[in-house]
User: Fold these one by one.
Assistant:
Number 1:
Amino acid sequence: MKYFFGLILFTFITSLIGFQIQTDYRKIHFHSIVVDAHNDVVGRMMSGEDISVKTSHGHSDLPRFLDGGVDVQIFSIFVSPRQPAKEYYSIANRQIDAIESFIKRSDGKAAFGNSADEIKKLVIAGKFVAMLGIEGGHIIQNDITKLDHFYKRGVRYMTLTWNNSTSWSTSANDETQQSGKSKKKGLSKLGIKIVKHMNEIGMIVDVSHVGEKTFWDVINVTTKPIIASHSSIYTICPNKRNLKNEQIRAIAKNGGMVCVNFAPFFIDSGFAAKEKLMLEKNKERVDEFRAQQKNDVKLKEKTLSQFLHKEYAEILPSVKQLVDHIDHVAKLVGIDYVGLGSDYDGISVAPAGMEDVTCYPKITEELVRRGYSESDIKKILGENFLRVLKHNEG
Ligand SMILES: [Zn+2]
């Protein structure tokens, strides 16, 4: 009997704790300024999709951002280097036009935020704040004055390289390749000028995608805090796109931050092999799906991960594994140097439970469960980014 009452008491207390976490995390999440540093949905906008209304596929749209408690989204301006080089600049400008027209269509729900102070005011006024970041320095076509143009249009960071190098900086992809391209050139004289100019005008230098040589050159040159807008942790998942501990220490010393990328490939070192095996096992179905997709308009919108939903569910990393990356930075260098850079709509598949932008509260839930204080969680969710932005303005 004693045992029975003990069990009831235990169940009551644990469910009470569960309930407490449940209410606490939602309160904390929706009372924080949630900033995500990297989202690629602009690609969908350029295909004519209207994300001011709910969409049936992809990861992001305005109603879903609001559901997920996202207050500030930095939209990535990305032009594939396979496009003709002379068109990089004009395509980038058309992408900014598309974001401007999205804001116009939002019925006053969304607005551009250009400074940390303005962003805070807009969030308090209940707006969804859009910001811009350029992904890939090739967009400025070796012309420093184009940085000024983009700054005026609202661009507040530039990722120096994408997977391709520029004539003035080498990418992680090229620096780690075994071919002739692998020379670790880092920043050239022009590259140093570009970084200094970005510091001057208040455009944050973003080191996601850059090679290690470029990274260390940036650290030596920059006078303002830098970011990695969408990179995760190399110690947990050794991928050339992730950051090693000495890089994370250097970013912290510089006053910058790491915005953790949600891509399963960057979160879980075993994911690529697991996916390969799973796709081999389901080869017939995958081939059939791809053949059908070519002819069926509706199926075109469906991703392979949606089609093989059950199979993916078994191999995807969890929210806990994602939060391990945040935890790692916080434990290594402190709470002030970590944030979020999902890469939603740029990644083909997201961790289990993190299917789209409505899922951000789950990160907060996990942080609460791990004992992070409310003020620490607010830093991770957005305050760290606003601090870095503010330091770049001054
Ligand atoms: Zn990227």
Number 2:
Amino acid sequence: MVKQEIRRLIERLGENNIPASYSESGDEARDLVMSMIPEGSTVGFGDSVTLRQIGVVDALDKGNYVFLNPWRPGISFEENVRLKKRALTSDVFVTGTNAVTLDGKIVNVDGLGNRVAAMLFGPDRVIIVVGVNKVVADVEAALDRIRKTAAPLNVRRHPEFEPEPPCGPTGVCTDCSAPWRICNKTVIIERQFSNSRYRPVITVVIVGEELGV
Ligand code: SF4
């Protein structure tokens, strides 16, 4: 993506009252994200390869935060659900996203819905980190990317999805009815309030690297 397109995307997000910034590298993005999270905060986490890749998960694990990570090894199913629920009222929720459109919309599809629920309402602040590979032309292209790229890769990284939805082994979406279908809840964030009562909650950090799935 050329710099001019990224500048235009940041402007379009801004017009939708979604503040956004650009970091050249994952390291730069990690430092920016961590600078936005006050020490002592309760931090919710939408399972994100991007945030693991750039080191945000490590930094939260090691730092002075109440990090609500439901995917920490050894956590029981009951604890996993409890942490996902607590994340809905966290101080800060950090997550990746499936796609961002050039006209400034954030598009996500969830299986359970905990990630999109926290993006929509609850946490005082939501920080969304996205690599340039997930910037697409429009909502149609975003949904296409999710079914053809993100969903098959996400299915494959969850061996507990048994039987595996068909896109895992084949890479092709059949609009399945599998018990572990992960395309259940589609959310398009178009704008945030711009009135005096509610400040914008979501901030987007665009990274000049290919990240996530
Ligand atoms: S609907 Fe089913 S087959 Fe299609 S991408 Fe989602 S999980 Fe995979």
